[in-house]
Amino acid sequence: MSTTQRILPKGVSEADFDAALVRFREILGADSVLTEGDQLAPYTKIMMAGDDKDYIPSAALLPTTTEQVQGIVRTCNEYKVPIWTISTGKNLGYGSAAPGETGQVILDMHRMNQILDVDPEVCTALLEPGVTYQQLYDYIKENDLKLWLDPPAPSAIAGPVGNTLDRGVGYTPYGEHFMFQCGMEVVLANGEVVRTGMGGIENSSSWQVFKWGYGPYIDGLFTQSNYGIVTKMGLWLMPEPPAYRPFVIQYDNPEDIEEIVDVLRPLRIAQIIPNAVVIVHTLWDAGTHVQRKTYYEGSDSIPREAIERIKQDEGVGEWNVYAALYGTPEQIDVNWKIVEQAFGKSGKAKIMYGEEAEKRGGGFEYRAALMRGDMNLQEFGLYNWRGGGGSMWFAPVSQAKGSETKDQTELAQKILGKYGFDYVAEYIVGWRDMHHVIDLLYNREDPEETQRAHDCFAELIDEFAKRGYGLYRTNTEFMEQVAGTFGEPLREVHKTLKNALDPNGILSPGKSGIRQ
Amino acid sequence: MKLTRRQLMKNGLLLGASVPLSLGAAWASDGGLADDPAHGSISLFGVDRSTTELGQGLRQQGWTPRYEGRLDPLALNVQPAGTLATGFTDEAGLVLLTSLLAGRGRVLALGRHDAGQHRLLSHRGPIAAPLAVDAGSWQAALGREYARLATASGSVRHSQDIKRPYGESVSATELSFLVRL
After folding, report:
1. What value of ipTM does the predicted structure carry?
2. Considering CB atoms only, which of A86, A137, A383 is closest to B95?
3. pLDDT tens-place string over residues A321-338
4. Which CATH fold topology does A14-108 show?
5. Statement: A115-239 belongs to CATH 3.30.465.10
6. Which residues lie closer than 8 Å to A313 by C-beta, 6 or more apart?
7. Where is the signal peptide (chain B) (predicted)?
């Protein structure tokens, strides 16, 4: 079957789009305006259960400067061309590099990739949106700076700016990324540039150290939103600690999740365990390097008997807690005793570190690397678990209480089971909250299974919302539905802001369910 | 000393580090090839028999496959613009590859080779060869077809499903690609 039909932005005539493309080429140069099918193909690859035809861009633009972004935005206003902004385009499972809807022009910021400043004394960085974690990591190592990053799991190719703007998380004590962001430069929809926080003061040395500036704090408006295009962002980097002890605590029974969370919570709030701890289910721990078909060929949910075999063969528990201690050796020794005592009480936990943990197998090695801010791509292995290229992250938030965790786990397993999918999940433990991250893996090559995954995801959103659980982040196919669960008053505020800041609705229409 | 990825790339230590000698030897002794390679080199990724066969198909059409071992999409970043690359990978590799090509390269063709069928997608117009095995393996036929698409000038997106012969031995889904950086 051959396809030659030209894709145009919604509501834009061919003549106007051609005129806009001419202008884009004047601003960027012809090589930075992509319109050919084979160039745009990478921007059409999605992993969520949507229709491929709904996520095809009409063009992609590759700016290298803030001034070019200003020119693009002014042109878009003139011709009413909608753009969908990506930084490195690696939001895999949440929409990847594809537009929010067919016809939008991709504004791909990956060539804006300068590390503008790294200050090893106050431990800050100022970055452009195309900088990747690997690039920043290399810079730090090559300059022998004693600083750590906080990358997300599939980290090397993703970038700190995009991940922070989507409010992603990592695994060191700096795991809640937006908390450690400081100062932005933003191109507004009218083409003007604003610097947030202390950035408005000419020659300010405080832009990357004092978040709040003066007057209303607005940085949050530019996260998970479509109110502006972030062209520079400051972030705080963790000083390398004198010592570091990663460890794993293994529990064997499904119901142990309740105890784990209740033991962990006070340790997290008191910062005895300072990092973003993960509680990983068997199928995630094994799924990064094991294929499902080795244990089960059926198309329904993997049965308990197979899960038990995986636990046996891989040496992993039903729940596997990966955490770390940081500080001086003396501090670590003191805190280790507290951890051992807390988790040792019930006699259910198997606590391991050092050689014993390394020998155990499972995900210890790559988890230990992530918890000290090192790069790896181990979690891409999850895409081989079921095969077929389908992946959607379902990520509801809960309080860090065992009762809520138990409730969420049972609800998720029930709904996933009804649709024949596996519970491949982990909890990321914040200070007082938990991100329950479930990878809904399915075969996108099978239309029936894709529809089933779509229905399953929609039901997960609705049923979790009925029990008071909302998602912290979602993919472009379900942004509208998730926004609906947060209620109309909030949506009205979002819409009012959108109309005030972007009256032509040219910036990422539909992002987080926000439109004119 | 622990080297960063960028330093490894600069030193050329990362690429091709796992080239199986047996595959190189297979090509060295391969018969039935074009006498004079007409098209230059093409990076070839993968580690099993399918990759060898794909390489043979390419060579039959005048390409010189340069074996790169298991696909490390990050390694593609340091290859010069215009480099052609093909081969087989897994789901994770395909996700990485396509996402890394955004704004950096072109997807000329992709193939998903399941038990029942070959599903081919070309951005270089229609797929001509039915991947018949009467002239060798389907992988070699795919190599010949990818060799043709690598030089084709069409820009039409074309997808085609090709039924695989009954009884053909298939162990698992294989994913092929042809891209230009």
Report:
1. 0.86
2. A383
3. 999 999 999 999 999 999
4. 3.30.43
5. yes
6. none
7. 1-28
